[in-house]
Fold these 2 entries.
Entry 1:
Amino acid sequence: MNFLKLMKMPFSFHEGWDQVDTTRASIVKIFLQLVLPLSILPPAMLLYAGSHHASAYLLDAAPTRWEAVAAVFFVAELITVPLMGMLLKQIASTYQISADTPRSFLLAAVTAVPLFLSSLGLAIPNLWGMICVIVGGLLLAASVLYHGTVYILKLEDPSGAEVLSAEAFASGALVWALLCAFVLVPLMN
């Protein structure tokens, strides 16, 4: 895959999406080659932040707490991506849009990529800098979801894609916020 084309996915209905769409990979293959490897990044970054600059985030918890939170966060990520795929399929069917399970899962997996990558913000030893990177990842995920809804689910009406992606994003953002809260609460003294 051409990395430069993939970088255009949040801003285009075709650049990069044509590459993703032609893969026709199974759910298991998408999970093993995309979701699983990238799901390792946020817990690894949590461990890094906890051991290198937790005090910059005002979170001086014991290393064992950071490890426990990272492990549970990893499992939660592995669960939420398939759940988002099922949610996308359900929302699409509510609007009489035909979306099969593999395509819905593909869209959920690709939408999660900016969120996984935004965990790199935990390398920044500044609370506001880290928050900006993570919020930027959330905004990119919203854009990927919108553009992917049009291309992957083959919607011709952009307003229908806006409604569908907004509804799915609202649910996904709520889950994302709960995951972030899950990280913070056990780490607070």
Entry 2:
Amino acid sequence: MRLRYVEGSVAEFHARPIPADLGEPEIWLFVPERPALVLGSAQDQSIVDATAAAAANVDVVRRRSGGGAVFVHPDRCLWLDVVLPRHDSRWVNDVRTSPLWLGKAWSRALAEVGLLAQMYSGGLEQKP
């Protein structure tokens, strides 16, 4: 896999296109320039106190995929996107099962450095 180091705004990173002609798997190591609260594609913006976010110098952005809100900080998190071309043997066209191989790899890597990790592999749940 090729590693790409990317810096910039969280909004720009989420708007970044995934190349249609990706020849080999890539890991995008992203370092955000500022803290941000990233909302899922269907999350209601009203859950955010915009005044408090602005006062704390936190951007509020929306990603194109689902899921819940995630706080991102340049000094406090590791952000990796693993991008697979469709012809890769690990590619699965099912959002529920496609990340399992990567979760298992992370679990093994953490165990090798003495950190125990439990991977959730159950179904997707939507909380009211």
